[in-house]
Amino acid sequence: MDARRDTGAGSGQIVINIHNEPQPTDLGDVRVANRAVVLRHVRLHAPCSRADIAARTGLNKATVSSLVTELIDQRLIRETGLTENRVGRPATMLVLDGEPYAALGLQIGADELVAVAIDLGGNRLLTWRRAFAASTVSPTETLRALAALTRRAVGRVTAQGRTVLGLTVGVPGLVDPSGAVPLASALGWRDVPVAAELRAALREPEFAVGVDSVANLAALAEQRHGGYAGGTDLVHLTGGLAVGAGIIAGGRLLRGGRGFAGEIGHLSLDPSGPPCPCGNHGCLTALVGLPAVVRRLLPDVEADGPVTDYLPELTRIVALARQDDPGVCGGLAETGRHLGRGVAVLADLLNPETVVLGDHFATLAPWLLPAARSELAARAHAPGAGGCRLEASTLDTAGALGGATAALATVEAGRLPVR
């Protein structure tokens, strides 16, 4: 089951999107909706009291008291014993608990698989990286490796007495609502039923298994945990094998009609430019994706064969840039200009407050940003690029972190976990 969708008794199918702010309601499953309201308020405003929740949400005090008791019983929130300094009777304060639970996120990277587990409050329980070149092997081999990494992560958190609430996998490509990948050109994938095959490999686990694009999940992580947390209009631009845009517009993840929004990596900036894995020429991915950057700045890199481990090459580029190597610094400035042209398109189409650069863009940001910002200012139509800021992400493994965050969606929407 996709981590963004759940089926609830009494109201039919309920679509869950953790970007939607829950509101008290008299329709459908009222208790589920109100439970979500209480959980969200505690997450955003803890420590807070029962009276605070009632006053700020519009729920009556008896309803809040009943819901809080239920959530404490489920160990989703807990009392801290702290009291507020105010006139009248001291109030017991509430914070998120969630200690018995964990959510998992996986990410297929340029040369690695990443697993992240978090608790209900977003605290990291583990971050694992496994060297793996997914673009050089079959989808079946990649899914087998993902399943093995998942089993290890599940074993670690369940050994701590935690129940896994869900798992979401980030793929650098198009993902449809069923969790299948119709196309991931950077990996050479077509029509891969990732969610179904991963569930089968895990022997139909009790927790939900969802799939989304790495870009969407990174944007979710940025909105929840990053330097611009709470932003209502931002874009996270992912790097690695493919370039993708995860778009938060009006506080919500922008998916498009079939879930394929954000594929800016295949915007052709130079039709006579280098070939792209998608079959076109001069795409943004072909100009600023990690393989393209490594080939441009380290011409000797493929003398011994194709690169499957990009970390040493990225480390080498950073070292040369710090030494002011003219070839590397010039190549990074050129990459920054290409990047700025792509961001200018985003600024004109979406008018985001911030575009955040992730993955290798963040690593190389000190040398990319000056040229990219200059190009953005010169090419965006609106004065001052419409107020769009271009910044480097401070998050590590944002796609996997966003996957774990997405896996919390069912509980955050008010559904009680099965323990």
From TrEMBL:
Residues 37-79 form the HTH marR-type domain. InterPro entries: ATPase_NBD, HTH_MarR-typ, ROK, WH-like_DNA-bd_sf, WH_DNA-bd_sf. Pfam families: MarR_2, ROK. Gene3D superfamilies: 3.30.420.40, Winged helix-like DNA-binding domain superfamily/Winged helix DNA-binding domain. Residues 1-20 are annotated as: Disordered. Belongs to the ROK (NagC/XylR) family. This is Xylose repressor. It comes from Micromonospora lutea. The lineage of its organism: Bacteria, Bacillati, Actinomycetota, Actinomycetes, Micromonosporales.
